User: Fold Endo-1,4-beta-xylanase from Neoarthrinium moseri.
Amino acid sequence: MAPLHVWLSAAFAFCGTFAGAASVQPQNVPKSVAASYYSSFWNDGKATVKYSNGANGQYTVNWSGDKGNFVGGKGWNPGGNKAVNYSGTFEPDGNAYLAVYGWTTNPLVEYYIIESFGTHNPSDTPEATSKGNMTSDGGEYEIWTKMRKNKPSIQGTATFPQFWSIRTAKRVGGTVTTGNHFKAWTDAGLKLGTHNYMIVAVEGQDSSGTAVINVGVAPTGSVAETPTAAPTTTSTELSGAGATLTSTYLGYPTRNTT
Ligand SMILES: *[C@@H]1O[C@H](CO)[C@@H](O)[C@H](O)[C@H]1NC(C)=O
Ligand SMILES: *[C@@H]1O[C@H](CO)[C@@H](O)[C@H](O)[C@H]1NC(C)=O
Ligand SMILES: *[C@@H]1O[C@H](CO)[C@@H](O)[C@H](O)[C@H]1NC(C)=O
Assistant:
């Protein structure tokens, strides 16, 4: 969903001046290398959104107007197996996703490891197919896939699958070991290709909100976890939105499909 992207390099090389003998070549030039992240921002042109890159892995997104679609964030290019640490705030009003988000080519795949979302669980659609579940980094994730037909991609308009891991207890902050998801997807028959970019992304869909995300910075304290919207077939043990997770996830939901 994000064809427009730019390199953001926060690496600085100190270039000294060398007075004196002309034959002196720079050696052992002191280098101050700050964390360097890839940054991507895509907007469908309808969203009213302000995306700002801060220092190192930080970025801020403010959006309003309840219309349009955007995806932005910071990470790596290429992506791959990493212990992705992040922290911050994510306060959508309406629907949005906070995810480790990326693409592969050959085959072309758009993927999401969803840590939190606003009002819409992306598995709540008849087009989505369940591929089981997995645990990683202290949480459980559902695996889903869906085809996208003639949609924007890093290779222009194309038809390609989306793979999703959706954390059953939403959180904002922690570690996402991406390799665990890639392996679970592969084991479920969901084939990835060559890694393109991979970012900790905020995506807004017809919504408003604010987010400040720090990629590379794990949370210092404990992170609240909120169960996703109660699946239709499970018991009352998972209480409503805003409740603290006190139980493990109760098996596999039959989602609302409307
Ligand atoms: C986002 O909104 C908050 C609250 O209104 C404001 O303090 C902040 O400066 C805004 N940041 C950007 C990047 O627009
Ligand atoms: C995330 O934090 C862990 C623990 O400090 C560290 O080992 C790991 O390298 C970090 N991940 C990245 C991608 O920097
Ligand atoms: C999903 O997780 C539940 C609860 O841990 C487990 O009972 C179930 O077997 C899992 N399903 C799959 C397909 O792995």
Q: What stands out?
A: Confidence is low (pLDDT under 50) at residues 1-33, 231-258.
